[in-house]
Design a protein that fits this description.
- Pfam families: Methyltransf_33.
- This is Dimethylhistidine N-methyltransferase.
- The chain is an alpha/beta fold.
- Helix content is about 45%, strand content about 25%.
- It has 11 helices and 14 strands.
- The radius of gyration is 20 Å and the shape is globular.
- It starts with a helix and ends with a strand.
- Bound molecules: N,N-dimethyl-L-histidine.
- The site of N,N-dimethyl-L-histidine (AVI) has 12 residues, from helix 10 and strand 12.
Length: about 325
């Protein structure tokens, strides 16, 4: 990509970010989109979060990938023929690496296609994975999920297994999540599969603690979006004047995060002025939790058939294989 195109892309991304932020903060109630948490600083804070005592989902899914690798591999094997293993939002591929290593050891013919919105992530994976996993065929795809899935379809006609891990599906309200999975299904053919990581309903105290950690990492994670807005959109949020508040409703399974304005204040973002009442909140993120039955219902509504469910030892997290 030449420099001109790169600049254009960055400008378009910033324009979209600005319009989403202004739309969200002019709505009632105010809201921001959690997909914007992940700038370079947000990525670092999320890494800290994944290592903190209360945030259990990463360790639970890591346990499934490290201890039940053979079962996972068998569940996605299909008829044993070659396939493409496509990962949406691959990140550092730490969990998937267990499965990739196992498949290589078994001599399975597959190509790993990580998709990520961050070009840093894709460059890192393209460079490092073939070194740590000799013999790995990898094609990294940098861009939006569905655009890159179409790119994967253009590149190969082999059977597809799509991985969507980490309970990222929970960061959408349920109707949107079903719409997203339906759209995924439209990009797949009969025999293709989805390997999806889903956080399950459990003790409400355990869930709430994971999103309200003692050290305040989740608070920093949320406030970082205000700092990103300051930096990228010429705004003047004072993060000292916002507090983090998390709730979990065990009935619906919705865990929600908010930033609450601790005083009446005015914030400038570019040419826009946003007013906050004291105690007015910004809705920041949903992290939806499910029962097993709810996930099966979701699969069926999105035209998939659930074929295998694997759990960690506490049964707090599930990796399910759904057939298209
Ligand atoms: C990425 N996603 C699945 C995380 C979650 O658990 O909802 C993001 C997160 N937000 C606060 N803590 C972690």
């Amino acid at each position: 990509m030449n420099t001109a195109t790169l600049t254009e892309t960055t400008d378009a991304k910033t324009a979209q970010f600005y319009s989403d932020v202004i739309d969200g903060l002019k709505s009632t109630p105010k809201r921001l989109q959690s997909k914007y948490f992940y700038d370079a600083n947000g990525d670092k804070i999320f890494q800290e979060l994944m290592n903190c005592e209360e945030y259990y989902p990463t360790n639970c899914e890591l346990e499934i990938f490290s201890k039940k690798t053979a079962e996972l591999a068998a569940a996605i094997a299909g008829d044993g023929g070659p396939f493409d293993l496509i990962e949406l939002g691959a990140g550092d591929a730490m969990k998937s690496a267990y499965l990739l290593r196992y498949l290589l050891e078994q001599g399975v013919d597959f190509t790993y296609m990580p998709i990520d919105i961050s070009d840093n992530v894709i460059c890192y994976l393209n460079e490092t994975l073939p070194q740590t996993l000799p013999g790995l065929q990898i094609i990294g795809l940098n861009g939006e999920y569905f655009n890159m899935l179409e790119e994967a379809e253009r590149l190969s006609t082999r059977r597809k297994v799509v991985m969507f891990l980490g309970s990222n599906v929970g960061n959408m309200p349920v109707p949107e999540a079903i719409g997203f999975i339906k759209e995924l299904n439209r990009h797949l053919s009969p025999g293709d599969m989805l390997l999806i990581g889903i956080d399950l309903k459990k003790s409400p105290k355990t869930v709430l603690a994971a999103y309200n950690d003692k050290e305040g990492i989740t608070k920093r994670f949320n406030l970082n979006l205000l700092l990103r807005i300051n930096k990228e959109l010429n705004a003047n949020f004072n993060v000292e004047h916002f507090d983090h508040y998390a709730t979990y409703d065990p009935e619906t399974g919705a865990c929600k995060s908010y930033l609450v304005s601790t005083e009446a204040q005015t914030v400038h973002i570019g040419n826009e002025v946003i007013r906050f009442e004291k105690d007015e909140y910004i809705f920041m993120e949903i992290s939806q939790k499910f029962t097993i039955a709810e996930t099966e219902q979701m699969a069926l509504e999105a035209n998939f058939t659930p074929v295998r469910e694997l759990f960690d030892s506490k049964k707090w997290f599930m990796d399910a294989v759904w057939l298209a």
